[in-house]
Design a protein that fits this description.
Elements: H1 5-35, H2 43-61, H3 64-88, H4 93-116, H5 132-139, H6 145-149, H7 153-171, H8 173-183, H9 185-190, H10 195-218, H11 233-243, H12 248-266, H13 277-295
Length: 314
């Protein structure tokens, strides 16, 4: 490996960023949810819906960007169901999220045969990727060109959104209102902030981000939907959010850690170590459990998290 150390490092870092991107996007969605006082374990299901319908949109439109829009719309509509159950009807949020996950797991399995004539996966579709001209320009960038070529557009979108939401949550009027609704909803209501509407908007925005995370797997990193492709990433994103102490930068760091663990598993054969590949395979999930155990009690969740707001029409 000594002679090929630099290509290995570049490939490993690029793989870490690519793998972490769905987690970054979904953990940002979970963060916005929970900052408003809503906990949503249905992010896994929303990722599934985003991944599946992005492929459907790409297949039937012939345009991957339209596919991405369709996937995001599916995620928003799915999150609207969750918001209605949890905010309007005041159903238990854990049960509502579980229902979303169950529903989302069933819908693609039902529609794969109807839409693609296949039982467990879709056809290959157009994907979002660098154009030949873009690859030429990026490859000509000194020093980092080769590294950037191994990334994709969604990586940059995710990193930009981390910066945007860091500013919004801490510096903007919207962020102040969102945090006040998640911490002291009655006080926010007294000040004229519409608690219900703020929470609805947060859940829908969260659904759009989680759907983008799912779509980044099906039409950006790949060009196909397969049953089980989300594989617990929605739950890992929630763990990253807790590990990151409900901050965008913290969620980014945790997502990169989990991404590095999976990238290590993928590239484990390069090491030539006498370690079973199953050890590398379970590493991301082991880190998830360790993160929740070690950092869950130290993290500071919003005070009104998972508590339905009872007053009036707000």
């Amino acid at each position: 490996m000594e002679g090929n150390q630099m290509p290995f490092i570049i490939g490993f870092l690029a793989a870490t960023l690519r793998i972490a991107t769905p987690l970054i996007l979904t953990s940002l969605g979970g963060l916005i949810n929970e900052k408003s006082g809503i906990t949503n374990i249905g992010l896994e299901g929303i990722m599934i819906m985003g991944a599946f319908f992005a492929v459907v949109g790409s297949e039937y439109s012939g345009n991957a960007y339209i596919g991405l829009a369709v996937g995001i719309l599916a995620g928003v509509l799915t999150s609207l169901i969750f918001a209605f159950l949890s905010i309007h009807l005041k159903a238990d949020q854990i049960i509502s999220g579980t229902a979303i996950n169950t529903l989302a797991a069933a819908i693609p399995s039902l529609l794969l045969w109807a839409l693609f004539g296949m039982q467990s996966q879709s056809n290959g579709v157009d994907r979002i990727a660098y154009s030949p001209r873009a690859r030429e320009i990026i490859g000509s960038i000194p020093i980092i060109g080769d590294f950037l070529l191994e990334l994709n557009y969604m990586v940059f979108v995710a990193l930009i959104l981390v910066a945007v939401f860091t500013w919004l949550l801490n510096k903007s009027r919207w962020g102040l209102r969102l945090r006040s609704v998640g911490e002291y909803p009655k006080a926010a209501d007294t000040l004229g902030i519409k608690v219900y509407m703020t929470r609805y908007k947060a859940v829908l925005l969260s659904g759009a981000l989680a759907a983008m995370g799912g779509a980044s797997l099906s039409i950006v990193s790949g060009n196909i939907y397969r049953d089980g492709m989300i594989n617990g990433r929605g739950f890992i994103a929630l763990a990253a959010m807790i590990f990151g102490n409900w901050t965008p930068l913290g969620a980014l760091g945790a997502s990169l850690l989990f991404g590095a663990a999976e990238a290590l598993q993928i590239r484990s054969q390069s090491f030539g170590l006498p370690i079973p590949t199953e050890v590398y395979y379970i590493l991301p999930y082991l880190l998830t459990m360790i993160a929740i155990t070690a950092f869950g009690k130290r993290s500071h969740a919003p005070a009104a998290l998972a508590k339905p707001y009872e007053k009036g029409e707000r």
